[in-house]
Structure formats: structure tokens, C-alpha cells
Amino acid sequence: MVKKIKKTLQEPSGSEEQSPDPEKGNGYWETHKKKKGTLFDVSFFYDWCKACGLCASLCPRKIILNDPLGRPYIEDMDRCSGCRFCVIHCPDFAITVKERFADRRRSTDEE
Amino acid sequence: MREEAEIIRQEYLRHDKKFPHVWCPGCGNGIVMGALLRATHNLKLSKDEIVLASGIGCSGRMPTYIDFNTVHTTHGRSLTFATGIKLANPELSVISVMGDGDATAIGGNHFIHAARRNINITAIIINNSTYGMTGGQYSPTTPYGSKSTTSVYGHVEHAFSIAELAVTAGASFVGRGTVYHASHLDKLIGQAITKRGFSVVEVISNCHVQHGRRNKLGGAVEMMQSFKNNAVTVGKAEKMTTEEMEDKFTIGILADIDKPISTEEYRRINRQAERDADKVVKAKVKNGVKRYEE
Q1: Which residues form a coiled coil (chain B) (predicted)?
Q2: Are residues B126 and B268 in the same domain?
């Protein structure tokens, strides 16, 4: 657990003004509590994707980017709001948005 | 708990057909197909009680990929086959998918007469303003002045408005949506399927490969943005002047009326005639006249 906190403290947080101190109750923990349960995972099925660019252009938060071949990818997955606008506008049924729960498995693997 | 998109992909598509589908990258047909599948999934209709008929064209490829009872018919005759299916088994919910050329040019007569007869069929008409599959010839919905392979100096004829045509022809439910407003399209198609009577959903779609490229409308993304900018809801359109409504189109429900369905009336009259015939035969037997059949 201590390792996890240390690791999160080392990660660059979105807002630099907040002091990343878990005891004071701001910084990572506030944002994490807010985001808890509302994280989303976007997966692209590249076998069916035709790289039309609709998902990247219609994303309201502009988090879907295109690689040189035009295929979509996401760098900052935590910013996804889960609106599924890309899912209903994908003509090729190649996008799935799933709710992502806390990264329990990943943290246990690391420990 | 599976996502809706996963259920649609795993249960409603025919994976033995070659996926990805044949439509161009960014084509609106895929979005309409997704909206149709979501609408039928939300209505909790089983796959066996839906029949999907289509004609020829890009939209005619749609029944190939969907795992309903499907029939891929001749050009413009999607509604005629659908009428036959509905007469044979009225419990099925019959959906007919057509393109703009399929519905208003080759099958134009079938379309207006199906609307006049008021048969309980849902017609989804994908309007991309051109004959996309055959190489971009002008269709009845090509706007005045726009270029195509058969009108290189600009089109000299004026366009049909499919939804208004259906309202005038007497359809009981008429709606218009675009491929940009996809969730709105879900609801429209769902309402059209549940509505008793001939229901038409016109979907403004993009053909950036044949129509957009020749008229410098940009690619799929730019055409989608133009749908977003030019679409006006029915409520807003009433307050706008005709000058403001130039180059714009209304989306939403344009007509929603209740009137008797011709196929049901026909069955009622059939039953009445059978009863009358029985009465005549019984009277003859009673009077000692031999029946012809015996």
C-alpha cells in the first residue's frame, strides 16, 4: 500500500497547485475518489477498422488521436467521459467502451 | 455485464460473411445499420420475428450482414416483397431498407402506393443524394446545380424531398434523421417499428466518395459537420423564416397519424366473405341442392 502511494506521488498530477499530500486530503486522493467508478476503457478492433477518422473528429474531449496510417489510438485513457459517441458513430462496429473499475489486478501484480 | 455494442457485434451480425463490410471508410450505411440494430435490441424483439428486405445498391448489402430473416430483392422492389411477406404472415415485423434511388426512382411507384395503402411496414430510406454504387450518377434527390458523372456542368433538375413525399402520399409515420444524430435515429427507428401503419424514416447520409468529392464537400468528417450545422428540429423550423431555412432541412417526426391498415382490412373482408359463403352453402345443403365440390 505504501508503495502504491509512493508511486502515485511520483506520477505527475494534472494540477500542479495542489500539494500531493495524502494526509491533508487533497491531491491524488480527491481526484481518485471523484474518478472512482467512472473510469472507462476504450478498445479498438483494428481488424474491422478502416481508419475513416470519424471517431477522432467527433470525440467531445478530443482524446482519440490518429497514427500515421490513420488508425485511432488513445494516450490518456483516464480522460474518457464514457459518452459512447464514438461507438454509435463507428460505421464498422470496431469500438467498444467499457467501464473500468479500480486497477486491483495491476497493483497486485506489481507488488 | 456486456456492453450494448458487444451484444450487437456478437449476436446480431453474421460473422461468416466477410467483415469488415464492403462500404467505404466513413460511409453512413454502417451507422444506420448500427442504429437499426440498437433499436431492435432495445425493443426486445427476437431475431426470428423481424424480416429485413432490401433492394439493390449500397444499402442492399445491409441484410447480408444482419442475422434476421433477410431477403435481398430486385431493384426498387423491396417494398413489394415486403408487402407479400406481411400479407403471408402478419405477425412478423417487416423492415425494408432502401436507398434514395431504389425508393424514389426505380421503386417510386411502389413507394407512394405502399404509403397510400398504409401497410404495416417500416421503410428506412438512406438518402445520400447519388447513385453511389454504380459510379455517382444523379438520382432524384441530387440537389439543383450539383455535379455528378451524368451532370458534369451541374444538375438542371430539382430534387425530391422524400419525407414530405411520404407525408403527402399518406404514410402514418414519417421521420427524418441524419447519420450525425445517431442516437436520435435509434429512437426514430424504434418508434417507426412500433407504429402501426406504413412508417418511413428518411436518413440523410453521406456519400463523400461519389457525391462529396465531385462537389467539393470534403470527406466524411466535413459532411458530418455539415449535417450537424444544417439540421433543424421541427419545433425550431416553425419559428424560422423561409430565407433562414434555405439550404437547411428539418429533422424529427414530420407526421404521426392513426388510420386503418389495408392488409388488416383485407383480412377482415376475407373472413366476412368466407362466413357469407358458408351461409350460402349451408342453405343449399338444407334445401337439398348438392354442393359443387362433392
Answers
A1: none
A2: no
